[in-house]
Design goal:
Layout lengths: L3 E5 L5 H12 L5 E2 L13 E9 L3 E2 L1 H12 L6 E7 L11 H12 L3 E3 L2 E2 L11 E2 L2 E2 L2 E3 L8 H11 L3
Length: 162
């Protein structure tokens, strides 16, 4: 198995809990992105990055502060899987936008995105996280569909061979 690093930003704790569930299935420890620099990615072949979308399509503050680090990061040769949390009912026009923004930064840094996820089963109007008809990573909604989270995580990891 590749050397995997799991990183998250979280305000309410939902993204941290999702990161912990993913990490537990892989026998790993998730790491908070807050206060780190991009060199934390250097030792990993596969990165799993998680972010909630704050307010109306905004980056979560810890990731927002990390943007300059992402702009300086060199992710060439690294595979990157994303997971995002959002509320598809209260924010249907910006559902998971932060995951879409993070995906753009990963690609600009030379990372290879893996782990796309179908949009079936979600009700939203628009999302920057949808590319070619699929989410760029695992879509989770702890506000409206918390009962689906565990199965979605298990399926997503299996589809990536993890």
């Amino acid at each position: 198995m590749a050397n995997i690093g799991i990183f998250f930003g979280s305000d309410t704790g939902n993204t941290e809990k999702a990161a912990e569930k993913i990490a537990a299935k892989l026998s790993l420890e998730p790491q908070d992105i807050a206060g780190n620099s991009s060199d934390i990615f250097d030792d990993y072949d596969l990165l799993i990055l998680g972010t909630p979308t704050a307010n109306y399509g905004e980056m979560q503050p810890d990731w927002d502060y990390f943007v300059p680090e992402m702009e300086d990061a060199d992710l060439t040769g690294k595979k990157v899987a994303l997971f995002g949390l959002g509320d598809q009912v209260d924010y249907p026009d910006s559902f998971l936008d932060a995951m879409g923004e993070l995906a753009e930064m990963v690609e600009e840094a030379g990372g290879e995105l893996i782990g796309e996820w179908p949009t079936d089963g979600y009700q939203f109007n628009d999302s920057r996280a949808v590319k070619d008809g699929k989410f760029v990573g695992l879509a989770l909604d702890e506000d409206r569909q918390p009962e689906l989270t565990d199965d979605r995580i298990a399926t997503w990891l299996t589809t990536m061979g993890l």
